[in-house]
Amino acid sequence: MTAETAPPLGTRTLAWRRRRASAARFWKEYQRHRAGLFGLAALVLFGLVALTAPLTVGSDVQSVTGAPGQPMESPSGRFPLGTDQFGRNLLGLVVWGSRVSLLVGLLAAVLSVAIGALIGITAGHFRGWYATVLMRVTDWFLVMPTLVLAIVLATVMSRSLGTIVLAIGVTTWPTTARLVRAQTLAVESRPYIERAKALGGGHWHIMSRHVLPNVMPLILAQTTLIISSAILAEATLAFLGLGDPSVVSWGGLLQDAREAGAVSSGDWWYLVPPGIAIAAVALAFTLCGRAVESVLNPRLGVSR
Fold first, then answer.
1. What is the pLDDT of residues 238-295, one digit of tens each?
2. CA of 152: how far to CAs of 149, 194, 216, in Å?
3. Is the CB of residue 213 less than 8 Å from the CB of residue 296?
4. Cβ neighbours around 74 below 10 Å, total
5. What CA–CA distance (Å, rounded) separates 268 from 282?
6. What is the rounded distance in angstroms from the CA atom of residue 128 to the CA atom of residue 107?
7. How far from the centroid of its chain's Cα atoms is residue 106's Cα?
8. Phi-psi label, residue 231: left if phi above 0, alpha if psi -120 to 50, beta otherwise
């Protein structure tokens, strides 16, 4: 069948081809950022560690009654990172804690970005008194210390992972809302938006079919940057004793080390591994976020 007699491609097929081509161009540009590739490799490694934790260490690593070692043993061949105050293998606890820390960070970041994107798009589209009220609320959240608000929410609500996710998500959205609103205003000033309105396009059609696809790159970049902040916030809340005591997380391990007097007694192996894990994951997400931001907006001039 020649090109002249070939049937025209369907709308969905053409759309999927364009998306695949766009994804290929994105990956080609992303590969030019060495720091971004390093961060992505680190995230893949941490993800594999978290996903395979039930197979590599097992859930019984959290058991206090079945601890295999003596309390506060220093690193050895049997326990490469030593043991905690109950005699549990710290290496296994750090591996198992990656599941909770990464999950809470991801869910909190998604909730934060979803709230910010919703408020930013609607405020940029409707404007008027509606936008004024939303932006004043956003300003109030911006001037309030995020950590203090998260601590208040985590204190008055039940101590669970859901509470931590909610506390972080509902206190870290204002920056996203501001950025998305500014981008929405820029998109809505373009001529094709006026044509869409003249052809009878409603509010939902304009926001979902025209505004959202144009602000999605910004939302994606913002998500990768917020995840690192969310993981740090989860670790901070857990370190302050506001996390779920029934689960193991990196912040919870630091809290346990503080309560066990690891700082004053010099038991460094109880503090350093979870602290390095938190810093490494936060750095990896930050490197990926900066690379994504640079690819989607080359005018930022982010170094490679």
1. 888 887 778 888 888 888 888 888 878 888 888 889 999 999 998 998 898 888 888 8
2. 5, 45, 32
3. no
4. 12
5. 21
6. 32
7. 4
8. alpha
